Amino acid sequence: MNSRIVSSRRRFEQYKSEFRGGNDAPESPVPDPKRRKRLRSARQLVVRFWDLLRGQRLLVIFALTTLTVATPLALVPPAATKLIVDYVLVGQPLPDTFPAWLNLPDDPWRLLLLISAGVFVISIVKTAIQICGRWYATRAAKRTQLSVRKRVFEHAVRLPLHRVQELKSGGVASILREDAGSVAELVFGMLYNPWRAVIQLLGSLCVLAWVDWRLLLGTVILLPFIFVTHRTWIERIRPQYRSIRKRREEVDAHATEAFGGMRVVRGFSRQRSETGRFMRGNHLMGRQELYVWWWARIIEMIWDTLIPLSSAGLLLYGGWQVVQGQLSLGDLTMFLFYLLMLLEPLAVLAQSATQFQNSLSALDRVLDVLDEPREMVAAENAITLEKPNVSGRVTFENLSFQYPGTSEFALRNVSLTVEPGQTIALVGPSGAGKTTLCNLVARFYDPTEGRVLLDGIDLKEIEVENYRSLLGIVEQDVFLFDGTIAENVSYAGRHADEAEIRQAARAANADEFIQHLPNGYNTFIGERGVKLSGGQRQRIAIARAVLADPRILILDEATSNLDSESERLIQTSLQRLMQDRTSFVIAHRLSTISHADLILVMEQGGIVESGTHDELMEADGRYREMVQLQVSMQSSLAEPTDAMT
Ligand SMILES: Nc1ncnc2c1ncn2[C@@H]1O[C@H](COP(=O)(O)OP(=O)(O)OP(=O)(O)O)[C@@H](O)[C@H]1O
Ligand SMILES: [Mg+2]
Question: Is the pLDDT of residue 387 over 50?
Fold first, then answer.
């Protein structure tokens, strides 16, 4: 196993060389041929983000409008400074250009007071409008975050099963938390802050042009730099952030898995190696983060040099103009103020550009998930069935099936009709395809070839969630949710009352043990039901399927963890339950399925024998062999050998 461990340093070297080689940062240090080569362009991302903003657009537009009003107000105080310097401090007479209705006082002190009061009021109004706009933008961002999380969750729970398995539970959690969370920052990063910068920029540009257009030229020269840095540098950063986010997803997926399998980790004393595995991912992520830090800082360094340089140059030119008598001192002061106001938004934009790219990479990943096709999208004319109208005839027509991404057929040419209410038992060696057949009945997958029909209708024509509401499933690996027993039993029917829950539990022979628990039906059972025994978990799962009141019941090794006595009790109630429902039962203990209407013996994905218990016993084939093997094992247990006595 050790030979497979690749150090984070080597993986990082590989990452860097691949990154330098192409425009796209490699997402996985192990090259994956299916990896999406192209990233979305910034334009596509903007359009898609606007689409995600649906519902919040009015709020955002309102916030932008307040900015449009408040930001120009911020341009007033520097103009007031000019008035104070020129007409109060230097003592020049007011020019005739001031409109008479303003009725400005000639007395410098009164003029100073008036201007100060005006600036104060305008600043207060500006701040009030700005806060109001920020509040609405923040609300829009929060709501967007919630709606994006909802969309991603809704979509992820409907992805095809094999894709969900590829993403892993920790990975999905990571996307929901980190990526879907970061998308909302774009309300500020993509709209609010840039808009503010644009307004401030335009406003200052206008004023500067009015003061001295040559001074303006000096500042306008900076603008192409924004464009150039954006194209050549910033766009290279986004793929790196994307890659870091992918790494975080892997790290989270690993941590979730390690804690999910904590008993195995402890049982094999692998705490240290699990920590090592976790840290290798983290080390690589750390290296990538430090690497991108340099890329980000280089942009900042360029700006940090450009801005003081251009201010110094303009100050020099402006000072010279004043000395020449071309500009008044007030003009220069005002100009410097505006210059700062002009450069500030540029600097803010430049500094937040890397953060913005980070959020964009999150959006890119969220869109990847949202763009993946859902499982079994219903056709326009998809049928929805009413439970009482379903009789439950299940037909397999030349069914063959391959799991996605595998080359072997897990099922081959299965054809069969199951009449309504019949109980079908599936037996056969491990890996024969019993669970797979039930997976197709439950429509967890669609057949590779052939069809599955319910009452003569192809399952593909039925709306999938509607179809699954007709099912009751007890899976081989029982999964229970963290919550109370009552919540778990009523998972299929949230509105079930206490009596119904108890009735279902009784049918599953679970009522008795539940009553003995300290909090009865309100006992919390822990994640995956860790606080229950294996047999107790199975009985809760049976009760859950019973309460769903299904038309088709699938019991995959549903009683394998029970002692013979409990199993016998459950069998009786299950038989009652199965009477008017089509049921598929998988069991290794053959005694439990002898009553079935039809027994299918499966081997290597095909049905090798079928018939009732008596027919198959008479036929003297595989089934009889299996029964005899089990009987002889039981009898050898019943009669202890000499060696054991
Ligand atoms: N999700 C999956 N992806 C790929 N192959 C799978 C998947 N699930 C099962 N298989 C393969 O399909 C074959 C049939 O598996 P299946 O689970 O149907 O066996 P089974 O008859 O239920 O066995 P058991 O009695 O051990 O539960 C096996 O060879 C298995 O490796
Ligand atoms: Mg199985």
Answer: yes
Are both 452 and 523 inside the same structural domain? Answer: no
620 belongs to a structural domain:
no
Confidence (pTM) = 0.84
Residues 211 and 351 in one domain: yes
The answer as to whether 313 is a domain residue is yes
Q: What is the position in ligand 1's atom list of the atom closest to the CA of 165?
A: 1
Question: Is there a domain that residue 615 lies in?
Answer: no
Pocket flag, ligand 1, residue 359 (CB < 6 Å): no
Kindly state if the Cβ of 433 falls inside 6 Å of ligand 1: yes
Taking only the tens place, the pLDDT of each residue in 33-92 is 444 445 788 888 989 999 999 989 999 999 999 999 998 888 888 778 777 777 777 767
Give the environment of ion ligand 2: residues with CB less than 5 A.
Answer: 435, 476
Burial category of 139 from C-beta neighbours within 10 Å (exposed 0-12, middle 13-18, buried 19 and up): middle
Please tell me whether residue 391 adopts helix, strand or coil conformation.
coil
pLDDT tens profile 121-136: 999 999 999 999 999 9
Question: Is the domain of 269 the same as that of 207?
Answer: yes
Residue nearest to atom 1 of ligand 1 (CA): 403
**pLDDT class of 344 with cuts at 50, 70, 90:** confident
> What residues make up the domain containing 182?
43-371
**Residue 1, domain member (yes or no):** no
Judgement on whether residues 216 and 273 belong to the same structural domain of the protein: yes
Which residues, 6 or more positions from 134, have their beta carbon under 8 angstroms from its beta carbon?
63, 192
| Shortest-distance Cα residue to atom 26 of ligand 1 | 430
Q: For residue 434, give the ligand nearest its CA.
A: 1
Task: Report the CATH number that the domain containing residue 175 is assigned in CATH.
Answer: 1.20.1560.10
Closest residue (by CA) to atom 12 of ligand 1? 410
Same domain, 178 and 220: yes
Residue 308 beta carbon below 6 angstroms from any ligand 1 atom: no
Note the helical H segments in 490-563: 498-507, 511-516, 534-547
pLDDT in tens, 468-487: 999 999 988 889 999 999 99
Q: How many domains does the chain have?
A: 3
